[in-house]
Amino acid sequence: MSPDEYQDWIAFYNLEPWGSQADDSRFQVLCDVIHRTNSTERIEKSLVFFDRDPEETARLEAIERARTDRLSALDAKIEAYFERRLSGGS
User: Taking a C-beta distance cutoff of 8 angstroms, is the pair 49, 20 a contact?
Assistant: First the structure.
């Protein structure tokens, strides 16, 4: 295989990955769609078929929790501000 052909395969892989990780991801999406269409309960978070990197998942979840906490705090401050304004306070 020439270096140019190898670079073409790398570019193709970056565009459309193949292999078990990509297959697992596609299968997870398929399972999630089937479950959501046949379930009567409302699901906020997708089901996890297989977590390849639990440490990274935990890190991303911690970031999302921190973001949600900051937004909740901001919502509380905005609500308190308008409550003060409506009650005649400054």
Answer: no
CB 43 within 8 A of CB 36: yes
Amino acid at 10: I
pTM over 0.70: no
Q: Are 36 and 52 in contact (CB under 8 A)?
A: no
- Are the C-beta atoms of 24 and 18 separated by less than 8 Å? no
pLDDT in tens, 54-68: 888 889 889 999 999
Question: Rounded distance, CA 36 to CA 46, Å?
Answer: 9
| Unique residue bearing structure tokens 């509380």 | 76
Residue 43 CA to residue 64 CA, distance in Å, equals 18
The DSSP H or E segment spanning 32 is helix 20-38
Q: Computed from CA positions of residues 36, 37, 39, 41, in that sequence, does the dihedral angle turn out positive or negative?
A: positive
The DSSP code for 68 is H
